[in-house]
Amino acid sequence: MTDSGVKHDAGKPLVLRGFLKQFPRAVEEVARASEFGAAKYTWNGWETVPDALERYSEALARHLMKDGTDPESAMLHATHAAWNAMARLELILRKN
Question: pTM of the predicted model, to two decimals?
Answer without folding.
Answer: 0.88
